[in-house]
Amino acid sequence: MKKLRSLLLLFAIGFGFLVVQCTSENEKTAVENIDADHEEHEEHEEKEEHNETIQLSAKEQQEFGIEVSVAGPGELERHVDLTGEIDIDPDRLAHIFPRFPGIVKQVNKNIGDPVKKGEVLAIIESNESLSPYSITSLIDGTVLDMHLTPGEVVSDADHKITIADLSYVWANLNVYQKDIPFVKVGRKVVISAGTGTKTATGTISYISPVVDERTRTATARVVLPNPDGRWKPGLFIGARVIIGKDPVAILAPKTALQTYENQTVVFVKEEEGFRPQPVHIGRSNTKAVEIVDGLEQGQPYVSKGGFTIKAELQKESFGGGHGH
């Protein structure tokens, strides 16, 4: 009986050893499997991270308004921004008064009507001779103001007709002290009346020799052709005075820049597709930027429409896939 108990004890010890050994081996295998899965997951993530490209056909590029340019040098314009107002050229403005007191018999024009030089504007009967005489226009232009009514008695300077030739107008710009050294006669100016309106280009023809004591600004003048009458006197305007051009190695339009994953990028075109390329920018103006790093000369890149490519990449990152 004592021998049997000894055998049972030895069997129990051996069985326990085997159980511990098997458990250890299983745990080791499980850990190895977890490590392998983790490494595979990291490799998959790394592969996805370095595969941020998207393929678009020529038709899709046209549909999305994507334009591709080749990176290269250019000239970056430097400018100062000014504000101002459209004014009438005083040499193209006429104030016409009745020559003699009398009674207005006839008025042929209204405010806003076009007139020709020598055209009859009104007829007045003189108080002295009782004979009618005509008031005629001295210039071609548009009636801006008229203080004559049929049957009215005219006897003073308040009764006048104002006519202006608006085929050319003045753009008078306010030049602050800090900008005076850069604004010079002959410099190119781009003038705008606001977002969405057509711009006009001219040159500075005059700069006032004194600074206004009240506004502390000088006046720079640009004479603008106004054949369609869109530059109306009194209109508030903005102006961009070009003061110089700097050569840069890589010049790109601002429309090429996108923000992707908290970085400023340009989408470059490669055989695999379009890929976001982080870039560093230098000097800039309202339309273009200098690329100092991240884009090489001769490299094709998206100069317009990059927002669509960014949206497609973000859609893929959320599992949406490329829908074309």
What is the gist of this entry?
With 324 residues, this protein is α+β, with helices and mostly antiparallel strands.
Topology diagram in text:
Elements: H1 2-49, H2 58-63, E1 67-70, E2 74-87, E3 93-96, E4 102-107, E5 114-115, E6 120-126, E7 132-136, E8 141-146, E9 153-154, E10 161-164, E11 168-176, E12 188-192, E13 200-207, E14 217-225, E15 236-248, E16 251-253, E17 258-260, E18 263-270, E19 273-278, E20 280-284, E21 288-293, E22 300-304, H3 306-317
Antiparallel strand pairs: 1-22, 2-11, 2-15, 3-10, 4-6, 4-9, 5-8, 6-7, 8-10, 11-14, 12-13, 12-15, 13-14, 16-21, 17-18, 18-19, 20-21
Key terms:
single chain; Elongation Factor Tu (Ef-tu), domain 3; alpha+beta; 3 helices; 3 domains; OB fold (Dihydrolipoamide Acetyltransferase, E2P); 6-stranded antiparallel beta barrel; 324 residues; 4-stranded antiparallel β-sheet; conserved putative lor/sdh protein from methanococcus maripaludis s2 fold
